[in-house]
Amino acid sequence: MPERKRINILRQLLEPEIIELIRQKNWHALKDVLSFWPAPDIADLISSLKEPDVVILFRLLPRHLQSEVFAEFDPDTQLTLIRNLTDEQVKALMAELAPDDRTELFEDLPPELIQRALNLLSPEDRRETLMSLGFPENSVGRLLTPDYVSVRSHWTVRQALEHIRKNGVDAETINTVYVVDEQNRLLDDIPLRKLILASPEEKIEALMDTQVISAEATVDQEEAARIMQRYDLLALPVVNSEGILLGIVTIDDILDIVREEQTEDITKISGIHPGRIDLTFITKLREVPLRLLYRSRVVWLLALLFMDLITGGIIQGFSELLARYVVLVTFLPVLVDTAGNAGSQSATLVIRALAVGTVRMRDWIYLLGKEILLAAALGLTMGLGISVMGVIRGGIRIAPVVVLAMVINVIVGSAVGISLPFIFTKLKRDPATASTPLITTIADIFGTAIYLAIAWLLLGKPA
């Protein structure tokens, strides 16, 4: 039986016992029970406790396990511990944290705690942390770790392997070894397997192909994720503008970023502003405070409410026409909903394409033209679908109004859906901000105006 599966079964069996130990506050017995649990599972358990119990149980963990568990906590739990631990405990904890985890912690600390935490770092750790914090927010420089193994091109394979044995213990990964010059400029990356299979007296430069893939520290973390995905990298070297190797970003950090970005896109597409709730909003919905849920949703709902009032104003402007041809009202929901649905489909496709990098800003006009042709075909199909009902409900005079409005509305809705993500990208905003509720509301406004204007033109102004 796989080790992970065995641990999960043991967890389920021990859960009632653990709950009872927490109720009795028998911390030392609980410490023994948790000694073989993985760090993420311990973090989940501790996070579910009340504040005093969180601090007590965390303090009882072995020091080597504390840093692993701490890195798995959400920012609020980390902040709770920093406020309640002594300076010595915080100092020991941060010394054990990986550089990228330490940088992430400092990003979430309030100003009054940043100075305290910086003063507790060793001079070397303080320099690393300050360097990482100097990179732009959401840049790959914020994720890098300086714990990598590098060798020189003039070394022999024997020298390189001896260096790896001596210095690779604390490295984030040794699957890939980086070749640098005297100024620490990145020259190449060599798989460890290639070194092991080479002749001991062969020079490193003989193994180089100089086709190394790297990213500048200022590159957006999403772009770094795309690079790693495209080239199937387990670690991405990060350099400055002069090509000097600053550190590496490993696949586990990139996977966390991808998950966060996808969660953010999901919330934005749904018209929800996650703010500082981050992943907790989706993954731990039961624990999110009611006030944060309210704040995340009320802004867009209010904005869309006022936009919907425009639709009401348009309907009021055609009240005489609607009073004369009441049957027109029965087609209004299906017309505007179809336009909104078509726009949402277009937006979803282009938002995802922009996110994975297969579409660029320069493709806007081409995709808009292509979408209009597609929308015309879809609109004609929808128009034929509704034409029969138009004749049945409204007769031969109403049917052309409904069919023509359907075709135009689908075209307009699709054009809005495909254009908004590009507009937000041009304004340097996340294209996912072009949310489904926003597109649907805009389609409602245009769809209502188009439908009633066509009816006014074809049926004539009421006497």
From TrEMBL:
The chain crosses the membrane at residues 298-319, 372-392, 398-424, 436-459. Keywords: CBS domain, Cell membrane, Magnesium, Membrane, Metal-binding, Transmembrane, Transmembrane helix, Transport. Residues 208-264 form the CBS domain. It is a multi-pass membrane protein. Signal peptide: none annotated. GO terms for cellular component: plasma membrane. Its main location: membrane. InterPro entries: CBS_dom, CBS_dom_sf, Mg_transptr_MgtE_intracell_dom, MgtE_N_sf, MgtE_transporter, SLC41_membr_dom, SLC41_membr_dom_sf. One of its GO terms (molecular function) is magnesium ion transmembrane transporter activity. It comes from the Bacteria. It is found in: Cell membrane; Membrane. Homodimer. Belongs to the SLC41A transporter family. Acts as a magnesium transporter. This is Magnesium transporter MgtE. It comes from candidate division WOR-3 bacterium. The gene is mgtE.
